[in-house]
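Bit of a strange request maybe. I'm writing a small parser for structure token strings and I need a real example to test against, not something I typed by hand. Could someone generate the tokens for this chain?
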Amino acid sequence: MRMESDVAAAHRGAADGGGVATRVVNGLQPLKSLLLPETEALQWPTPAPNEHQLELLAAHLSRRPRTRYQQFVKPLIDRVAAGLLLVALIPVLAVVAGTIAVMMGRPILFGQTRTGKDGKPFAMLKFRTMRPDRRVRAEPFEGPDRRRVHKSANDPRHTPIGRFLRKLSLDELPQLVNVLRGHMSLVGPRPEIAALTADYLDWQQTRHVVKPGVTGLWQTTARGDGRLLHECVDLDLHYIRRMSFRTDLAILMRTPAVLLRNRGVI
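Reply from user aminoacidic:
Good idea to test on real output. This should exercise your parser:
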């Protein structure tokens, strides 16, 4: 089939340092500077690439050698920054943990299995925000589709304090421990639930050639755009393709503003 031959050619081109994959990728509309404040500066060009182009891009990325930044600089920055942030945020972490213990009881933290680099599962840490009996409660939920919206203001599974923590993303602060352990990066694709990634197509699994991130391109550009959460692999591939210190810095700089706007929460 033509699709198979194109993908095979993309693999050969990637091995040669260019080829079909490079031509296809470079044929996409050039993007604006990553430091521009507009949301579009970090998004795919318009129109978005089709699945055929994404397959070619995934084939190229799966064979592309890692840069020095990806191998050495980024992991060092991740662990040093995560350690410093954990120390600086000790008062905040203590207040949040104490509030959860008093108002919700224990446990304070919970770990959820997510898919990490190279498809390896790991326990992603978060502050607990849900009711302990959420799996046996039968309360109706009339809010947006949970598969499409990362956070909802009316999810009955969450306690009032849990909704407040999620609104400000304070529940995600323990993920800095995951970064310190080497399971995650400060910036990367959104860590996805293992049950969903098990059904990914081969080209979609390419998102796992890098560590998932506490923040990332999806979190700062596409959250709340209406697509199923696991259907944003195109953004993950785009990030991997452009991964650099400049890209990561731009995403980190955008994250606080996105949180303050509560984008995608309702």
